[in-house]
Amino acid sequence: MTDSLFKKKEISPPEKETVRGRSRKKPGLAEPAGTKAGEQEGGEKKRPSGNRKKILLAGGILAAAAAGAYCWIGFTYKTVFFNGTVINGMNVSGKSPDQVKTMIAQGAEGYVLVLEERGGRSESIAGEDISLKAEFDGSLEEILAGQNPFAWLPAWISGSEYEIRTLVNYEEEKLNEALEALDCMDEEKIQKPENARISSYETGTGYVIIPEQEGDEPDGEKLKEAAAEAVSRLERTLSLEEKDVYRKPEVTAEDEGLKALLEEYNRCAGVTVTYTLGDRTEVLDGDTISQWLYDDGSQVIVSEEGAAEYVQTLATKYNTAYRAKSLKTSYGTEVTISRGNYGWRINQSAEKEALLAMVRSGESGVREPEYSQKAASHGENDYGDTYVEINLTAQHLFFYKDGKLLVESDFVSGNESKGWSTPSGAYPLTYKERNATLKGEGYSTPVSYWMPFNGGIGLHDASWRSAFGGTIYKTNGSHGCINLPPAVAKVIYENISQGDPVLCYELAGTEQTGTTKTDGTPAETKPAETAPAETAPAETAPAETAPAETAPAETAPAETAPAETKPAETEPAPSEPAGPAGPGAGGSSSSETAAGPGAGL
Fold first, then answer.
1. Domain count along the chain
2. Is residue 179 domain-resident?
3. In whole angstroms, what is the distance from residue 574 CA to residue 57 CA?
4. What is the 3-state secondary structure (H, E, C) of 558-594?
5. Cβ–Cβ contacts within 10 Å for residue 349, how many?
6. Is residue 566 domain-resident?
7. Pseudo-torsion of CA 478, 483, 485, 491, nearest 10°?
8. Contacts of 196 (CB under 8 A, 6+ apart)
9. What pLDDT does residue 283 have?
10. CA-CA distance, 396 to 411, in Å (whole number)?
11. Which long-range contacts (CB under 8 A, 24 or more apart) does 286-291 make?
């Protein structure tokens, strides 16, 4: 038999202790006196006593008996296996090959392998289901023939193990089919292992690690190997746990990477941001922030979309630009101003980035949102107590500063008959400019005080007009600007600031028929014959020319008040801008300013 059929596993016996014998003197050889242990004083040799002879004789007899016994025992191992011999996991000590074959044949007959599973469950595979039978090819006899009978003692001390492939035979395909049919291999009946993971966020607790779950899913290849080994050895039970057959979670609760993720999750979710918006606050904490957090397995990611949605919610709740405002007018009547871009506007892009930075850093704090536009105050009415109140119906304005009326005056607004009416609405003062020149195609008109608030529409002095107020605007108004007496424009200019609100509205029942002169004294709607009249536009009169992409301009004033004549048909009517006007809207520089579309003198 070759090594391919069986394999011997040997353990080397311990080294034997060497027994030293004593040498004896041959008879007839003389030794110097006094040099031998047996000599007596005086040079006489000591003779062995009778007891010593008896001991030596007994020892020889025992040695001979022991040698005989050892040899006799050795002869018995010519037909049986040494003590300590294990074949295919079976102890065959002192058994002959035929006895071992009987053991194997009996074991194969009615063989059942019981698989012990987790949870106290068990399943079995019968030998007949895999066509199991005993099969011998002389391997047992070859092992016995290879024994040296007189080496039985070292063999007993060290022991010998053999693996023989042909003691039993079965159909491997049937065994695999039987294994696949087990409940422990049915994916619907098993629980797969689960990695340890980060829990969902809990208020007051934060995140914790949920430990791994072992499950009871076998590794198919490991199960086949373990079952094949058990069947080959005719083992009656197979513990899947002991054979390490079950699949294991890849990540445990002790994983350092998972612990680092947990710390990062709790650091981000532990942030509290308190937004202050006037006398109101909004608190952002882990209950919301936790909804933005996820990870890629190695680091925590804060969702930009989640932060953007939160900032958008703030803007929807607290932005006041483009929203209706209530104003208790100087006439005692409350009006609603529904147009215009004055008010608070959160810069959502900038605030989102600032918020993300706070969460990622794990730093809590109190903050005010980033604004692209601010108003005078928070609350229901955001325009505060410094503003220009413009009654387009009455053609009269009031300028309040810190709640006190600083100046009021009649004015002339956009020409209604031409479709250039000044639009109502609440607007922030874009900027103010001293000694600006309103320029357009074919004209250039200087003004001393230029204060735009709605694109190219603004407040300015109109020194060429002799009268203001009444119904002048209906047929001889501006292109949309608010024309003021120079003295009034000066007062407003010197006391108003960029961003201050300009509130334009219409109020039925407040229309006036009278007008005021430039010096503020009353005048009739129709000026006296001695006063230069604001006549109907004539083709030859200086015209407010049609605006191109740049704004139309007001023509240079004559010595008397010039008539504001019909602009070209291409000039668009004043309209509300889509967004807040920035510095320079409707103008070019501090020395030359072009009025925007719809603007005019």
1. 3
2. yes
3. 143
4. CCCCCCCECCCCCCCCCCCCCCCCCCCCCCCCCCCEC
5. 12
6. yes
7. -170
8. 209, 210, 211, 212, 249, 251, 252, 253, 255, 258
9. 98
10. 6
11. 286/201, 286/203, 286/206, 287/201, 287/203, 289/359, 290/200, 290/201, 290/207
Give the pLDDT confidence score for residue 21 in this predicted structure.
35
Which amino acid is present at 375?
A
Please indicate, yes or no, whether residues 464 and 601 belong to a single structural domain of this protein. Answer: yes
Residues 99 and 178 in one domain: yes
CB neighbours of 284 closer than 8 A, spacing ≥ 6?
A: 271, 272, 273, 274, 275, 310, 355
Do residues 457 and 598 make contact, with C-beta atoms less than 8 angstroms apart? yes
Check: CB of residue 302 under 8 Å from CB of residue 293: yes
Give the structural domain span for 184: 85-191+218-239
Q: How many residues does the chain have?
A: 601
User: Which amino acid is located at 537 in the chain?
Assistant: P
Distance of CA 397 to the CA centre of its chain: 55
Q: Are 420 and 548 within one domain?
A: yes
Could you tell me the two tokens for 24?
Answer: 């004896």
Kindly give, in sequence order, each residue whose CB lies less than 8 Å from that of residue 334, ignoring residues fewer than 6 positions away.
Answer: 326, 327, 328
pLDDT of residue 583: 30
Q: Beta-carbon neighbour count of residue 72 at 10 Å?
A: 9
Give me the amino acid identity at 132: L
Cβ(401)–Cβ(549) below 8 Å: no
User: Looking up tokens 């932005």, which residue turns up?
Assistant: 319
Give me the amino acid identity at 433. E
pLDDT digits (tens, 9 = 90+) for 351-394: 999 999 999 999 999 999 999 999 999 987 899 999 999 999 99
The CATH number for 346's domain is 3.10.20.800
Residues 458, 574: one domain?
Answer: yes
Q: Strand ranges (DSSP E) for 432-571?
A: 433-440, 443-454, 457-461, 467-468, 482-484, 501-505, 515-517, 522-523
pLDDT value of residue 438:
80
Distance CA 375, CA 385 (A): 11
Residues 273 and 233 placed together within one structural domain of the fold = no
Q: Are residues 227 and 113 in the same domain?
A: yes
pLDDT under 50: residue ranges of the chain: 1-44, 522-599
Last residue of a domain, one of 205, 239, 273: 239
d(CA 245, CA 226): 8
Q: What is the 8-class DSSP label of residue 379? A: S
Q: Is residue 404 part of a domain?
A: yes
CA dist 329 and 396 (Å) reads 12
Cα angle 87, 92, 95; round to 5: 135
**Nearest CA-CA partner of 464 in 448, 480, 441:** 448
Give ∠ CA 519-523-527 in degrees, rounded to 5.
Answer: 110
Non-local (6+) Cβ contacts of 473 within 8 A are 395, 412, 413, 414, 415, 416, 421, 422
**Which stretches of 107-214 are assigned E, i.e. beta strand?**
112-116, 122-126, 133-134, 160-164, 168-169, 197-198, 209-210
- For 462-561, list the strands marked E by DSSP: 467-468, 482-484, 501-505, 515-517, 522-523
The reply to whether 567 falls in a domain is yes
Q: Where are the alpha helices (DSSP H) in 11-129?
A: 50-76, 97-108
Same domain flag for 514 and 421 = yes
Asked whether 420 and 477 are in contact (CB, 8 A), the reply is yes
Q: H/E element holding 6? A: strand 6-10
412 shares a domain with 526: yes
